[in-house]
Amino acid sequence: MIPEKTIVTSETSKSSPLNPSSTRTICHVCNKQFAKYTCPRCNFRYCSLPCYKSHSVQCTESFMRENVVDELRQVRSDEQTKTKMLEILKRFHEQEEDDDDDVMTDGEGSTLPEETIKKILAGDEISFDDLSLEERKGFQRALASGELSKMIEPWDPWWLRSSAQRINLGAQGKQLVQCVEEEEVDDKGATFVSEIPRGPDTPLMSLSKLSSTKPSPLLPIHLVDVLYSYCFTLRIYNGEWESDSLGAATMVMSVSSVLGQSAQPGTMKEVLSFCLEQTCSSAYKSIGGGLKFGLNLVDDVIHLLSLGNGALVCLLCDLQRLILGAIQEVKSSGRDLKKKLKLADRKVYFMMCWVNEQTPEVWQALESSVRAEKNSIVELNEYKGFRDVKEKGHTRKGGVVIEEIE
């Protein structure tokens, strides 16, 4: 214990009731200023924050750790917070072990910066710039290996939820009842808030006012193309296209030949072939694309058609908002892209008005057509896979002729 240096003054302390005597203690750290404070852990007397931080590293770290623990006890214990804190504690433990083996250099600690910890505790987002060099390298390795995708909870598409079957729209497509937040229960018994896209904010126009000619008989087939591209994009974006409207719209137009290339496919086979070809392309294979994913998207289209007018109008309305958001994000230099987006916006709106006037029989017939074409694709793929394996087997000398394929 360091002996206290005291100075006796003739003044009577008036500033603080905690120091009524005329005896004042000199700071134990700098030995220049009067000590105004006392460390709550070791009773060390100090005059300012810099002196407090330098009086004992072990003491200040323990004090800060206790404050963090007290703060964490007041944080709501939901699953997201638990996961974040487990990751922080795990990293903290690993870094403490590294500190025992390695010598610290350049005065840099291995724990998270204080500003980053504050962001985590406050529930704010952490950017790439908040990470240290080693943490950035680890993040990039996890991203390249696909490890991060395992940490993301799979998105439950809104069209697969029970509330999608209860969408009621008026004669002009406007939503009769606007549900602010509707809670549902999934198969595991957990509750979640339904996120059905809202319908049109204004009544839809009739087709007779939009065009003097009759709609193309190919419009049902083109609708399948648009539905597929929407489902593709929302599943890739995990349902959160609002964070990148331009990127999402670009993806929609790359998968849809109707919106992206102004194509006029004449058969269901042409539509699904193009969509599946884009899904299996190298551009999307690294983010989950492939034939299995594509066939699941075809199932999404079939299910949406079974839901009828209400769900289809809400989907097209959500797609229109996506495209309008992308138009706002396009810079002045992207005039050609903005022109394509505006054309796609008009097509989607026309399709929305057409969908609103159709009868359930139209969707039943279209659903059957999509299902039949999907079955043909599956059978053809299975036969092709069987034939390829058989041909490989004939080239061998002995051994297995036919082997199982995935």
Descriptive account of the structure:
Residues 8-21, 102-110, 179-186, 188-193 and 392-406 have low confidence and may be disordered. Helix 8 (219-236) runs parallel beside helix 11, helix 9 packs across helix 14 and helix 14 (309-329) packs antiparallel against helix 15. The protein has 16 helices and six strands. The protein is mostly helical and 406 residues long. The termini are far apart. The chain has helices at 49-55, 57-73, 79-101, 114-122, 133-145, 147-151, 207-210, 219-236, 245-255, 257-260, 268-279, 282-285, 291-307, 309-329, 335-356, 360-394; strands at 6-8, 23-25, 37-38, 45-46, 183-185, 191-193. Strands 1-2 form a two-stranded antiparallel ribbon. It has a two-stranded antiparallel sheet with strand order 3-4.
Summary, kept brief:
Helices cover 55% and strands 4% of the residues. It is mainly alpha-helical and 406 residues long.
Annotate the secondary structure layout.
Elements lengths: L5 E3 L14 E3 L11 E2 L6 E2 L2 H7 L1 H17 L5 H23 L12 H9 L10 H13 L1 H5 L31 E3 L5 E3 L13 H4 L8 H18 L8 H11 L1 H4 L7 H12 L2 H4 L5 H17 L1 H21 L5 H22 L3 H35 L12
Q: What is the quaternary state of this protein?
A: single chain
Major sheet summary line: 2 strands, antiparallel
Number of strand segments: 6
Structural class: mainly alpha
Total helices: the number is 16
Approximately how much beta-strand content do the residues carry? under 5%
Q: What is the terminal-to-terminal distance?
A: 75 Å
Rg estimate, integer Å: 32 Å
Neighbour order of strands in the largest sheet: 1-2
Unreliable residue stretches: 8-21, 102-110, 179-186, 188-193, 392-406
